Amino acid sequence: MLAAISAFILMVSSITGPRVVSGVLSTPRNVRLTSHNMNLVLMWDSPERPARGLVYTTEFKSVSGYRVGCVNISNLECDLSRLNISISAYGTYKSRVRAQSGTESSAWMESNQITLDKDTIISFANVSLFSNGAAIEVSIKDPVFTISALRNVYHSATYNITYWKDGQREKARSNSNIQQNRVVLNDLDPSTKYCVQVQIITERNRNPSNPSAAVCESTTTEEEAPWVAAVVTFGIMAMAVALVVVAVVYRKNISHFLCPKDTLPQHFKEYLLAPPNSSIYLAMHNSHPPEEIYHQVSIIADGRTLEEGHPLEAAGRSCRKQPDTT
Ligand SMILES: *[C@@H]1O[C@H](CO)[C@@H](O)[C@H](O)[C@H]1NC(C)=O
Ligand SMILES: *[C@@H]1O[C@H](CO)[C@@H](O)[C@H](O)[C@H]1NC(C)=O
Ligand SMILES: *[C@@H]1O[C@H](CO)[C@@H](O)[C@H](O)[C@H]1NC(C)=O
Ligand SMILES: *[C@@H]1O[C@H](CO)[C@@H](O)[C@H](O)[C@H]1NC(C)=O
């Protein structure tokens, strides 16, 4: 009896077991063509009860027939925009995938169809804030696109900048239709914390774009920021320190420059120290110094030599020239 049951189980399993493997492969499920920031990715789920060693092959098409995408891959997605194929930012695409095991293949499963610029999901902008007195500068960076760039695909894209005092979200104000990447918010109160969120508006895209996460920054007082003086002081000190460092590091070079160690070549020295043999020099050297011609002058400041008359007049004549003695 027991042997009969086990024989029956064996028989059933030998009939049904191989049939699951050798039967027609079931198709991948939940096939979807997606796009984020202008990429193009086909994703799917594995078939129910997938056979071991299952691989997938994908194809895609734009206007004409299907062309090959990823071949014999084991993961559950194919990034068509990373393949060496040209994809248009305005193209309409459709894709399909089938499972393969050994020589067997499942039927193709088609995806939805998407038009890149209309359907791609644009991630939020990257927002940085810089406070400057009672104003805040908002700097916006567009998300990076796999194909092209935001401003190339959507020429008239604008930003909607929403800002509010921290904790007063319900009183938020908005500046829309902004095309510049740098915007100054200057209707703000000084010394107050503000939060900012930016949304990209493209008009052509069907998906509501995600606003950026709120980023916050405090305004300062209106007066000139104290850091200006600090920066200037720091700059001067840095220059002084740099000069000292340069002087210390190049100390040797500087002293070398001022007091050269190099000696004159020997033959130069010999030439310079040798007795001069120029006849003019010798004549000058041996001649006696020329006689100097002068008049002898005596100054007598003695009261006895004063002549009679006005004392002042006499005093004026007290320096008298003596007759030449030579
Ligand atoms: C993909 O796998 C099939 C079946 O194993 C094989 O015939 C084919 O050559 C493979 N293709 C590539 C490109 O590896
Ligand atoms: C990509 O395709 C171009 C021509 O379409 C070819 O010259 C190039 O070698 C390819 N690069 C790779 C990595 O396959
Ligand atoms: C935003 O920009 C900053 C500075 O350029 C960078 O460090 C950061 O990774 C960016 N964040 C995102 C989400 O792109
Ligand atoms: C800008 O964003 C704010 C807050 O999300 C919203 O109330 C407002 O309608 C938006 N303006 C435009 C023109 O989209």
Structural summary, described in words:
A hairpin with a 7-residue loop joins strand 11 and strand 12 (173-178). 25% of the residues lie in helices and 27% in strands. The protein has helices at 2-22, 116-119, 150-153, 226-249, 251-258, 266-273, 279-286, 311-316, and strands at 29-34, 41-45, 55-61, 67-68, 77-79, 92-101, 104-105, 109-115, 126-132, 135-141, 158-165, 173-178, 182-185, 193-201, 215-218. The strands form four sheets. Strands 3, 4, 6, 7 and 8 form a five-stranded antiparallel β-sheet that branches. A four-stranded antiparallel β-sheet has the order 12-11-14-15, with no helix packed on it. The chain contains eight helices and 15 strands. With 326 residues, the protein is α+β, with helices and mostly antiparallel strands. The chain has three domains: 13-119, Immunoglobulins (Immunoglobulin-like, Sandwich), CATH 2.60.40.10; 126-218, Immunoglobulin-like (Sandwich), CATH 2.60.40.10; 227-258. The model is unreliable at 12-22, 305-309 and 311-322 (pLDDT under 50). One 2-acetamido-2-deoxy-beta-D-glucopyranose is lined by residues 160, 162, 174, 176, 199, 201. Residues 71-72, 100 line the site of one 2-acetamido-2-deoxy-beta-D-glucopyranose (NAG).
